[in-house]
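Margin note from the TA: students keep mixing up input and output lines. Inputs are the sequences; the output is the structure of the whole complex. Example:
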Amino acid sequence: MTATPMTTTDAGAAASAQAGTRRSGNPFAMLRRALVYVLLSIAAFVSVFPFFWMIVGTTNTSADIIRGKASFGSAFFDNAATFFTQVDALRVFWNSAVIAIVGTVLTLAISSLAGYSFEMFRSKVRERIFALLLLLLSIPFAALMVPLFVMFAQAKLVNTYVAVILPTVASIFIIFYFRQATKAFPSELRDAAKIDGLKEWQIFLYVYLPVMRSTYAAATIIIFMANWNNYLWPLIVLQTAENKTITLIVSALTSAYTPDYGMILFGTVLATLPTLIIFFLLQRRFVEGMLGAVK
Amino acid sequence: MSSVKLRGVRKAYGAHEVIKGVDLDVPSKQFVVFVGPSGCGKSTLLRMIAGLEHITAGDLEIGGERMNDVDPSKRGIAMVFQTYALYPHMTVRENMGFALRFAGVAKDQIARQVGDAARVLALEPLLDRYPKQLSGGQRQRVAIGRAIVRNPQVFLFDEPLSNLDAELRVHMRIEIARLHKELQTTIIYVTHDQVEAMTLADTIVVLRDGIIEQVGSPLDLYDDPANQFVAGFIGSPKMNFLAGTIVEKAANGVTVELTNHKGTRLTLPVSGGAMGEAVALGVRAEHFGEPGAGDSDISLRVDVAEHLGSTSYVYANAGGEALVIEREESRHEIGVDQISVSIAAAQAYLFDSAGKRIR
C-alpha cells in the first residue's frame, strides 16, 4: 500500500472545506451564532453609547441635547467657557487629584503589604483573621457611614482630605487581590534574596514589588478609579466648596433649576479623562495583572 | 573552605517530625550528595543548613562555628535552587552582583567578581540579558555564577538539574564536577537521581523518612549496602530481590531456598540469620550470569527486553517476582519466552525481614 503525502495546497483546501462545512453547517447553529452576535452588538451599543452621547453632548446646546440631537454641534467652546466660568476647575481637579493619587499610593502600599504578609507568614490564626476580613466585606457602606462620620468628627478631621482618604487605604478587596496574586510569587525568590542578605522589607521593595508590577498596575487602575469616582463619602465629609471634588461638583451642577446639559457633559468628559489616561497607560499590565502573570 | 557538622539535628512542624535526629560530618572540600526518595527530608535538611528553615533541636556548625541562629547571608553559604530563582527583573550581571551590592561591596569590585565568575562559566556574552531570554541550561549556569560570586565556604545545591532535559542534565553534571575540581569548595548537593549522586559525589548520604540510612563513597554504598533500602536505591537498574527462606546454617555459610524457584538453593558466605527466617536475596542486574556459570540457576519468563546498544535489559518474572537482568554478551539471543540465568553466591546479598543486611 502506498501513501501520497498531503501537500500544503491539499491541506489548505481540506481546512477551508472543513471551515466551509462549519460555516454552512446546520441552520440551528447558524441561528444561535446570529443570536449571539445580536446580543453582543446590543451589549456593545449599551456600553459605548453613553460615551458617544457624552462626547456629542459637549458640542451641543442644552436645548439640542433635550431634543435628542445625536450629531456633533458647534457649542463646544461655549460649553467649555460656561463650565470654566462657573467652576473653579483648577481647585476642583486639584482636590480630586490629591485624593485619588495619595489614596491610590497609600492603598497600594498598605494593602499590598497586608496581602504579602497574609500569604508569606505562617500563623495559626492567619486564616481566621482573613476569613473575618472577608466577612467584613458583606457589611454595606451605608451601615458604616454614620459611625465613620462620628469618628472623624470627634477626631476633628471632617472637611479634610484625610477624612476622604483614610477609610479607603486598608481595602479588604485589594488585600484579597494581593494575597491571591502573591500565591504565584515564587517562594524561591524570597529564599534566594534571604541568602543574598536582604531583610524582609528589602525583599518586599527590591524583589516582590518589581516582580509583581503587573499586579500593582491592575490594582492602581482599580483603586484610582474607585477614588476618583468616589461620591457618597466625600459628599458627607467634604463640606466647603473649596474642598469639593469633580464628581461632587458635576453632580451639584445637575441640581440647578435649569441645568445646562452641554456644560455638565463637558465637565463629565473632563472628569472621565484622568481614568481613561491611566487605563490606557497601564492597559497591557492591567490585563497581565488580572491574569495573574508573574514573569 | 569549611566543614559542616550536624549534631542531633531535628525538625518538626508542630507534632510532625520530618528530620529525626541527624548526625553528619561533611569534611572541607568534599562533594557530599544527599539522596533519597521524595519526602525523605533531604531538601529540608539542606534548607536548615542554609538557614531557610529553623532547626527545632540539635546543633549546626559551619567552619567550626555554631550557626543555628545566624542569618542565612552570614553563614558563608550560597545556594542554587531547582527553579534557578533568578530575579526576573534584573539582567544576568545584576543578578550575579545583587548579593555583593547589598553587602556594601564597591562597584568596581562587584564588576571584577562578576566578570571572574562569568569567565569561569562562559557567561560573558549573556551578562546583559534578562533571565527570560536564556535557555534552561544558561539560567542554571547563571544561578551557579551567582553562587560563585559570593565566594562562599559551602555551596548548597537543591536538585539543580531536575528542570533540565536529559542531554543538558548530563552536560551540566559534568560542568558541576569540573567546577568542584576547579574551585575546591565544600559542596552539599541534594538530588533524588541516584545516577547524579553516583557520578558527582565523594560521599553519598542516603536518607529515608528523616533519618540517615547510610553514609559512604558511591562504590562503598553500591558494593556494600547496609540495608535493603540502600541496596535498592543505589544503582540503576535497582537491585533485584528474590524471596527466600534460610534452610541450613553451617560453618561455611547460610543456605537459602528461593520461594519462587522451588528446589533452588544457594549458600552464602554469611554467619547471621536464623533457621526458617524469611529473607530477601539481593542480586544486581549485571550479576546474573550465563546458565551454569554461577552457583545456582533459575528459570524466568521474559516480559520485555530493552536493547540499549552495548547492553540489553531483560525484564522477567517468576511467580510475580519482577527481575531485571543485564545482558552484554548474549543480547542477540533475547526474545525467547524463557530465560535461564545463574546466581553467584559471592555476588549476592542477604537481607532479613526488617531489611537489615545479614552478614
